[in-house]
Amino acid sequence: MTDGFDLLLTGAMAVTPAGVARADLGVRAGRIAAIGTLAGAKAERVMDLAGLTILPGVIDSQVHLREPGLEYKEDLATGTAAAALGGVTAVCEMPNTKPSTLTAEAIADKLARAHGRAWTDHAFFIGAAVENIPQLAALERLPGCAGVKVFMGSSTGSLLVDGEDALAGVLASGFRRVAVHCEDEARLKERFALVADGAEPEMHPEWRDARTAFLATERLLRLARAAGRRVHVLHVTTAEEMELLARNKDLATVEVTPQHLTLSAPDCYRRLGTLAQMNPPVRGEEHRQALWRAVEQGVVDVIGSDHAPHTREEKARPYPQSPSGMTGVQTLVPVMLDHVAAGRLSLERFVDLTSAGPARTYGMAGKGRIAVGYDADFTVVDLKARRKISHLWIASKCGWTPYDGMKVTGWPIATIIRGSVVMQDDELQGDPQGQPLRFGESLPRG
What Gene Ontology cellular-component terms does the record carry (predicted)? Predict the structure, then answer.
């Protein structure tokens, strides 16, 4: 159509850069073409969304989708289906697959695997390792590459970058913001004796204590400042780290997860056992409250789920042989909307943390806001819906969630990606049409 829209959304409240207000949205050729009062406009499809709220498409910038090599517990199709069912329109996937994502060939392989199977838009991190440091500056520019990911602790093989010289080399190679898992590997090894002979899961935050996280974050910031390199500190869990990061906002952006904002020790470990086990750990209430203060004070830039599924059988192993990680991409929106309903953060702040924040942090092109010319990515929610999260709702292959039985206020009703409705009323629509994300640093120079 040349005189109308492909899709017209009417009757809803919309969260735009101008605020939260009643607005119709017109979509043409996958992008937002008009915002305002569009009564009488022609469209191939009209969706009456009265009583609902349209958010910019939610972006989950930290997921582990396990393909290739670990498809028995998740793959690109099931993981992105879970994302779409949860109202998420785009994901950035981490490099700790088998084999690890260390080369241009590995990125190309993941993009090929996602083609025609991914329900959401997507990008893949390149893992930093000693052997690929000389290539990182070129690798981070590859189409579909979300950037560079560093594991300072809690990884195996060449993905573990725990030496100071190696980390300095990574930070000196390239210019895009580097995403970092901060735990001090030497301290982890030193303290492993606390649990080596077997322990209760509630010992997890004692073994991987707050000092372990702080030491790594302190070292990262020192080396990043020396290199003049921007960094993004993932899944921050401690009050001490937040105080340090607040003094380094010119250099560092900050992520927190819904798990660390919602669960607290020791209760979650007594209730959930190893299902609550993740790295860095869920900590005590004083740290959870410190994370919320950092959200309120603007220190936090992004909320990511750190979706990291394992099977129930794997999780049933005695601690500490049980693997760390839990599902999260499908529950990010309802769990955080419940916090909005409880008054812990505003709807606008939620949007900043889950749409504008990830797009701004990683330089995503055309994503993160409801604005003319941007991709027509929308997360349509019912802010008043009262629902209960259950294992049965989870589309991930592992089939469980730490939030089973949790009653929430706020629920994703539709997921729209580049003008195509991919989820409506808890059901996937059509076929997977996810495309690689684009990044400002890798766009053609004219």
Answer: cytoplasm
Query: Tokens at residue 8, please?
Result: 């017209």
According to DSSP, the β-strands at 53-56 and 13-16 are parallel
Report cis status (omega within 30 of 0) of the bond before 17: no
- 35 phi and psi, to 5 degrees? -135, 130
Q: Are 167 and 108 in the same domain? A: yes
Host domain of residue 17: 5-54+372-383+408-434
Q: How far, in Å, CA of 37 to CA of 354, rounded?
A: 27
Whether residue 175 lies inside any domain: the answer is yes
Query: Could you report the per-residue pLDDT of 210-245, keeping only the tens digit for each?
Result: 999 999 999 999 999 999 999 999 999 999 999 999
Instruction: Give catalytic status of residue 306 as yes or no.
Output: yes
Q: Are strands 88-93 and 58-63 parallel, antiparallel or unpaired?
A: parallel
pTM of the predicted structure, to 2 decimals: 0.97
19 and 42 both lie in a single domain: yes
Annotated catalytic residue within 162, 306, 375, 377:
306
Task: Output the domain CATH number for residue 415.
Answer: 2.30.40.10
Both 261 and 300 in one domain: the answer is yes
Q: What DSSP state is assigned to residue 372? A: T
Q: What is the mean pLDDT of the chain?
A: 96
